[in-house]
Model the fold of this input.
Amino acid sequence: MIGKLLTADFLKIKRKGLWFLTALGPIGVVALQMVNYGVRKDYLLQQSEDDWSYYLLNVHSFTPLALVLGIAILTSFIASIENETNAWKQLIALPVSKLTVYLSKFTVLATLLLLSSTLLMVFTCAYGMFLDLGESVPYMELAKYSYYPYLAALPILALQLWIASVSHNQGIPITVGIFGVIFAYSAYVLPDWMIWKWPSLMNEWDEPIINVLFGLAVGIILYIIGMIDFARRDVK
Amino acid sequence: MRALLQAEWYKLRKSKMVPIILAGPIIGLFIGLTSNLEVDSHINEWYLTLFSMNLTYALLFLPLITGVFASVICRYEHQSGGWKQLLALPVTRGKVFVAKYLLIMMLVMAMQLLYLCSIYAVGMMKGFTDPFPMEIVWKSILGGWVATLPLVALQLWMSILFKSFAAPFAVNVIFTLPSIFAINSERFGPYYPWAQPFSMMYIGGNTEDVFFVPWDQLLTVVGGGFIVFFLGGYLYFQRKAV
Done:
């Protein structure tokens, strides 16, 4: 059942610009570094001994912002595909449970974002090599800076999908997304328990893996709460 | 025209607009109370708070939220053939476009004023004793409003073009995020329309100028951007098939 729902959901997002946006996110993040390094490469290379690490940090300064905004855009898109034509009713009328409908939407979004993170790693690596930052490419660090923020952002994804799928007015989830990006932008003043701080991989112990583990745990909890709430509501 | 504005106002009152407008002062309070830049110099203590509040508010929040306003204003029309009903009335399309634009600008103004209140509230909570720098604050509040003129025009265009909320928002995000870089650049910053809310609310700018930016920059970038986006949206709406 879930397989067919997923096929249907992937069909629905065709030709709506979602794949385009999924690719545009990582391209944009790396393109900003292209401008940055293009304009003042010499100055930036002087800033640190370890050019690769410094470059990764520069890329990572935009990843959380792009991720939070990307999540808000994609979730709202997915919800408005059903909202616009009142298709929730028809979808629920099929012999599928509401829980699987929600799971399928979440899986589509998680897949898109995973693809986005993978592209980020590829583009970051490619531009880093082009810049000639040094012989030994830190592949482990590269993978860390690409996938850790994604995993740490799962609670935000679960929260945004919940809000987007139960709001009739999509202005509400978008406004929540804007709050999210302001929080992500001022992550260094936020307390550690705020989920919008986690994609920045900062915490008081300086151990990024903690953010990932919390992200997975709280992501699952928020997902379950959202799913149950979605299932209990009337479809209008 | 007055009847049209009134009709838009009625629709707006049922659009859950209040929580979205309140987002402005809430963000202001949040940034103001969390920022803890400390310097022991003799400058007015309001300046530092204002500086950090305006940075986040004008750089990301203001450009992004104006897009939400534009989408909310067009929401009723996109649902179940609202454009048809609205345009079947004895009104011209041009007037509908102008009425919607004016209403959004009024909303932005309301939010700017609420943000002004939040600046004052932050100062009160922190117990500032220095005199409130009224002139500078007014300049930045009004300046931020003027700087959104072209942005709102583009967002209204995009909101009429796309049915969903997410698409105009995506356009908005694509243009707004690079302004984080643009403001650091002497060369591109002054010419990037999405960086203007920041430049015009940036209290460290040249206080001799009206709104902290030179007149020619104001006229060419903000004025020019406004004309291009407004005419683009206006002409698109004239031809739009409803």
About this structure: Chain A has ten helices and no strands. Chain A touches chain B through 35 residues (CB under 8 Å). Residues 98-131 of chain A form the longest helix (34 residues).
